[in-house]
């Protein structure tokens, strides 16, 4: 959109690929964690498995001839990578299942509120507006959804031991999350 009208056809593809940004980022951080634990072999096994899954998904998606289907294959593979990395680190770091569930719940709340707000902006409020107005609305409502999701997830996130540890050492974290400093 910012490059001119001839790039407008790429918007649906980018809208699909946007769903892989979070998992790619988190998987990268988890991969660095595995590197720091000298677990390169574990990381490479996950990477090879995801590559195989992506290859199969791409072969299947390419049969339709739709680029958005190929983008969906990429998104699916990144979510698989995130799940595999998460499961591996939960096991290796011996993270309590309740704490893992709290983290997943908090992330899910934030993702759901953000996605809902972006959907409302693009399909209800700004659907008949110019491309630039629609983009502005989606970004604005996505930010509002992010903030709302954070507020809604505070009760779940604030019980996580890592968060309470940070809150005990950083007064601003305690204040934002409403956690009592120890």
Low-pLDDT windows of residues: none
Question: Could you estimate the helical fraction of the residues in percent?
Answer: over 70%
Share in β-strands:
under 5%
Query: Main sheet, how many strands, which sense, barrel?
Result: none
Quote the distance from N terminus to C terminus: 49 Å
Q: How many DSSP helices?
A: 8
How would the blueprint of this fold be written?
Elements: H1 11-17, H2 21-36, H3 40-62, H4 67-92, H5 97-125, H6 131-157, H7 161-169, H8 171-177
Overview of the structural elements:
Helices cover 79% and strands 0% of the residues. It has 182 residues and is mainly α. It is built from eight helices and no strands. The protein is flat.
Q: What descriptive keywords fit this protein?
A:
182 residues, mainly alpha, 8 helices, flat
Entry summary:
The chain is an all-alpha fold and 182 residues long. It is 79% helix and 0% strand.
């Amino acid at each position: 959109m910012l490059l001119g009208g001839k790039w407008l056809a790429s918007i649906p593809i980018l809208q699909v690929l946007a769903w892989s940004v979070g998992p790619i980022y988190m998987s990268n951080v988890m991969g660095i964690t595995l590197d720091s634990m000298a677990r390169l072999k574990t990381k490479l096994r996950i990477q090879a498995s995801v590559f195989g899954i992506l290859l199969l998904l791409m072969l299947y998606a390419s049969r339709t001839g739709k680029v958005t289907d190929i983008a969906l294959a990429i998104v699916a593979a990144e979510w698989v990578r995130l799940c595999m990395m998460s499961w591996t680190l939960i096991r290796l770091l011996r993270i309590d299942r309740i704490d893992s569930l709290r983290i997943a719940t908090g992330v899910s709340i934030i993702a759901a509120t953000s996605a809902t707000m972006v959907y409302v902006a693009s399909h209800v409020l700004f659907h008949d507006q110019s491309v630039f107005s629609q983009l502005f609305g989606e970004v604005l409502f996505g930010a509002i959804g992010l903030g709302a999701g954070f507020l809604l997830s505070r009760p779940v996130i604030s019980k996580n031991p890592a968060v309470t540890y940070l809150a005990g050492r950083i007064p601003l974290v305690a204040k934002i999350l409403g956690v009592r400093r120890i």
